[in-house]
Write a structure and sequence with these properties.
Elements: H1 3-14, H2 19-35, E1 46-50, H3 60-69, E2 78-80, E3 87-92, E4 97-103, H4 108-112, H5 115-121, H6 131-142, E5 150-152, E6 156-157, E7 169-171, E8 178-180, E9 185-187, E10 190-192, H7 194-197
Parallel strand pairs: 1-2
Antiparallel strand pairs: 1-3, 3-4, 4-5, 4-6, 7-8, 9-10
Helix pairs in contact: 1-2, 1-3, 2-3, 2-6
Length: 201
Amino acid sequence: MSDKEVLLEAFRFHGHKCWASTVGVRTALVAMRALGVKRAGSAGELHCILEIGDNHGAQCFADGVQYATGCTLGKYCIEKTGWGKLAFTLIDKKNEKSVRVSYKPTRHKQVAGSSFMKKRAAGIPPTQIPEEEAWEMVNVLWEAPEEEVVSIGEVKIHPWEEFGEIMGLHPCAECGELVAAPYLRVVGDRHVCIPCSGYDV
């Protein structure tokens, strides 16, 4: 798959075209090239530590990173720090190497000044903005020289230890739903899930 095909598939995965998912794909491709790795398969050969936070507009970055790297929540090979930054560390678990990449906002004023972003600021959903305006905004970042969009750190040694998959699932004595064993809580003589336990964690 070409880089452009990865971008198009990432947009389909994400649901719309936007600058942050574009940056997510672009930084992910750079990180994978730096480590000499391909998109993670079903075994989750890569692990990603995203530095995004909650409830901010740049979270679309995460979908671009997830699609391009193949690091997904379901395989538990992606996590976030909650720092609100457009950056991540990609870890090659097998070869125990990592690299940190981040968005370099050299062209961000152009993005912010695009007709697409002006309409987004006015509350228009991204899927209701004309396609040509979306591509104009995307291409500000996609067609720019790499060094104007991505800041890349050194490839470093990154020791990795696998702790194994939690296999045991047990029904909650209250609601009957299956719960991974470490998440059961004891209330009296009953094993219950966290929501039914009344505990916070």
